[in-house]
Amino acid sequence: VAFGQQTIYLQNTVSPQSMQEIANAVRSVSGIQTASVDAEKKALLVNGTSDQIALAQWLAAELDRSAPLPAFTRKQYTGTVEGGNFVAVFFLAQIHTAQDLQESVNVVRSVADIQRFFPYNAAMAVAASGTVDQIAVSEWLLGELDPAAQARPAPVMHDHTVDVPVRAGRQAQV
User: For 130-154, what is each residue's pLDDT tens digit?
Assistant: First the structure.
């Protein structure tokens, strides 16, 4: 497998923190070992295989947006991913703070058992790499956590009474 080097120029990302967030997502999701930021040139320098570099270019382009998307959106990478994983970027429409985004990421990482799942605050986006099931669960959870993802009626509480026969000497657990 041949390794190469590529410079990826960012068009819309201006802050060093945002550039570093993109570099962290690119490094982690693509499996690239080396990704560095040149803040003056607004560029990422990545080293990896041709498949990793193609994924890094796609991911950087998806995250480097001039404005967040107006609706919950999933963008799927269609190229080859190391380990047979799937890669997606999720854009959240109604989560507006870095804290809320990080809390959503923490919940999804835990419930979906997905380790390569990284927030990008400037676009209110999450970059993910995992199995098809992990990506599907992540999408569902993020859709539930992003209030505008779908119109839902207000939750309703239902009370149900259940008669459980208890034998002598035993306790019923519900």
Answer: 999 999 999 999 988 887 544 545 5
DSSP strands (E only) in the chain: 3-9, 34-38, 43-49, 73-76, 86-91, 116-120, 125-130
| Mean pLDDT per 10-residue segment, the chain (174 residues) | 87 91 92 90 93 94 87 90 90 90 92 91 92 92 77 55 51 44
DSSP for 22-53 reads HHHHHHHHH--SEEEEETTTTEEEEEEEHHHH
* Cα first-last separation, the chain: 57
- Partnered with residue 91 across adjacent β-strands are 73, 125
CB 73 within 8 A of CB 90: yes
Q: How far apart are CA 128 and CA 119, in angstroms?
A: 9
